[in-house]
Design a protein that fits this description.
Elements: H1 2-8, E1 29-35, E2 38-43, E3 50-51, H2 56-69, H3 86-90, H4 115-129, H5 133-145, E4 151-152, E5 160-162, H6 164-175, H7 182-189, E6 198-200, E7 204-206, E8 216-217, E9 235-238, E10 243-248, E11 253-259, H8 265-290
Antiparallel strand pairs: 1-2, 1-11, 3-5, 4-5, 6-7, 8-9, 9-10, 10-11
Helix pairs in contact: 2-4, 2-5, 2-7
InterPro entries: Beta-lactam-related, Beta-lactam/transpept-like, Diverse_Enzym_Activities
Domain Beta-lactamase-related: 52-257
Protein name: Beta-lactamase family protein
Length: 293
């Protein structure tokens, strides 16, 4: 009975892996749990190439962080619609529609999720550093982290393909940054224009609806694809092709997930349970490791 109660509460049964939740997906799924020391646990085909779709956005955001750290870009520089800045477009606050140069309203008034904004931000970064964005991302992020399996197909918002092993390497970097300093890291992974409300794709109206620069920030969003136990400071992204990752800087744990189906109701139900199961086990592991002998 205790095992059944734990299962219903989103906690793994005694002796079970938190990644057992993946077995409940009605399609293929795989995942890797990452701690500061590296991979802690894995399940499924973590070497399969997957479409990252919007998980590309954090790659673009982190490449922008490298440029910011080196003084090559200014977040207040004009970019996008009149009155919009690089900060606005990378934080989905420029007023641009999802996929076009049309605008819904003036910049800085509402969070309108926009692939076009991220693409414009990527083009701005490329022009500022004097390199093709793919070359900049590869030289400054992918190669240093050993993310050799990532394939870039053009769009800064949705163009990357890669494995969960590649994504786990990015998660490890985000737990212990080596490529950028603390100010640039905070700029991309903490809320920008934090008071803005807006629609969270797949989860409806959120007030507020925090985003960093290329990264989504969990905040107090409900419903959400991360767990109830994830700290509000958790950041990451999900992609509509079924790939996702989150980094919880308070729990000091990250999770990379890939599935063989486009984002759907099964993801909405099971990804939060998976996150809570991972946090339950790996927080417990951390606390046990910290106890004096």
């Amino acid at each position: 009975m205790a095992d059944e109660a734990a299962h219903e509460a989103g906690r793994p049964r005694a002796g079970a892996s938190p990644l057992d939740v993946l077995d409940e997906l009605p399609f293929e799924g795989a995942a890797i749990v990452i701690g500061p020391e590296g991979v802690r646990e894995r399940r499924g085909d973590v070497r399969r190439e997957r479409a990252w779709r919007s998980v590309t956005k954090p790659l673009t955001g982190y490449a922008a962080a490298v440029a910011l750290d080196r003084g090559l870009i200014d977040l207040e520089a004009p970019c996008g619609p009149e009155g919009s800045t690089l900060r606005h477009v990378l934080a989905h606050a420029s007023g641009l529609f999802y996929g076009s140069d049309r605008t819904l309203m003036a910049p800085g008034r509402r969070r309108h999720y926009s692939n076009r904004g991220i693409d414009l931000g990527g083009e701005h970064v490329a022009a500022a550093v004097g390199r093709d964005l793919e070359d900049w991302v590869r030289e400054q992020v992918l190669d240093p982290l050993g993310m050799d399996g990532v394939r870039w197909t053009g769009s800064p918002s949705v163009g990357a393909f890669g494995t969960l092993e590649d994504l786990a390497l990015l998660c490890g970097e985000l737990l212990r940054p080596t490529l950028v300093g603390p100010e640039a890291f905070a700029a991309v992974t903490t809320p920008q224009l934090p008071e803005l409300v807006g629609i969270m794709p797949g989860f409806g109206q959120q007030s507020p609806n925090p985003f960093g620069l290329g990264f989504e920030v969990r905040g107090d969003k409900s419903p959400h694809w991360t767990g109830h136990g994830n700290d509000p400071a958790t950041f990451g992204h999900f992609g509509m092709a079924g790939t996702a990752f989150w980094v919880d800087p308070v729990a000091d744990v990250a999770l990379a997930v890939g599935t063989g189906h486009e984002f759907c109701d099964a993801h909405r139900e099971l990804l939060p349970r998976l996150a809570d199961a991972v946090l339950t086990v790996h927080r417990r592991r951390d606390r046990a490791a910290q106890r004096p002998m």
